[in-house]
């Protein structure tokens, strides 16, 4: 990495999580907007390049986002170089200006009295690390060379298994992480055509690990059941977003299914289709589908609603306000048996009646329970009573492996209530995760995952990764 003089003009830039940013050049603050976050970063680089052209030389750019700070050098010809190590958000200084050296040339300082040497903390750490092995070696008994013995060789016994091809494939070393694709590190990699390839940040590494968890292999179809007996607890939204995340990262064969015994709202929140068929219509034709073993997922298209780029299907509950049809436990099991032939992952939205037979049947078939609550007293009460009821009905093991999602109902969160909910559900379920408020979800219309803020999509990716770990 090239080292540059601190006399270069300095420019400060910041990128927000809402596809907006700002850049300050010569003390003048400019707002930047683009269709996406990558576009904001590239527009900032373009403006900084223009400043370098006006100046007639390279400029220093301290680029900041929610992940941290990246010191860069931008040249008049558009080249971008790293000018130091990436500083994570948890370690950065209080202001961007603090991270920059002064622009004025250094003056020759008058000699000062020699001060007592100050212990270098890095050297102190190194000394502590190296001292322990040395002391251990000094204290260890000296063994003569003739006393050294080779470890015994373990021969396979009749009860042991010898390694096979699967063991050999499992022994492969983990793939090394590729160059950064996100954040300022990714922007530098793109702008330099890969000539400068910073390593991904810890946030990007976590992002990749979440995708890998969502994409993990499964030995058969899996059922996820989303629960809260209180209406307005975010169940339907969670069902659709979990299914969308699985669909996007796994490539389809995911179903979001509204298991309300009568009229649910998943069909309203999902993208529409050329038909109005629901689970009741599928149930009516189930004998024909079950009897024909050549039936494929294409034959189910008459009943489900394809969700486009989100790459999952939605099965609505009955939407006829004058209808008398309902789904009971027998109907649910018949539907579940058939749909499991066509989908690898079924994400099931449930109604508010814990005593309904189809509700209980869904819990019994679940491979993973997801308890959803907004950060409100009433929905928190509903989730807590739900877990008590499940444990009393013999589902304590499923409760212990459940994932709890706490959704913010507004921009401002009741932190005291949030801590109470976290403390309660962490003692009962496997993990508790927060998902943020997002204004695009407020209207209650069809879900458009592209309209969600980046931090919302990331939160649901991590939530879905935690769910996948239980499958």
Automatic annotation (TrEMBL):
GO aspect biological process, one term: negative regulation of cell division
Domain of life, source organism: Bacteria
UniProt GO MF annotations: ATP binding; ATP hydrolysis activity
Start and end residues of each stretch annotated as Disordered: 174-203
InterPro entries: P-loop_NTPase, ParA/MinD_ATPase
Keywords, sorted A to Z: Cell projection, Cilium, Flagellum
Alphabetical list of Gene3D superfamilies matching this protein: P-loop containing nucleotide triphosphate hydrolases
The protein's name in its UniProt record: MinD-like ATPase involved in chromosome partitioning or flagellar assembly
Taxonomic source organism: Cryobacterium psychrotolerans
Classification of source organism: Bacteria, Bacillati, Actinomycetota, Actinomycetes, Micrococcales
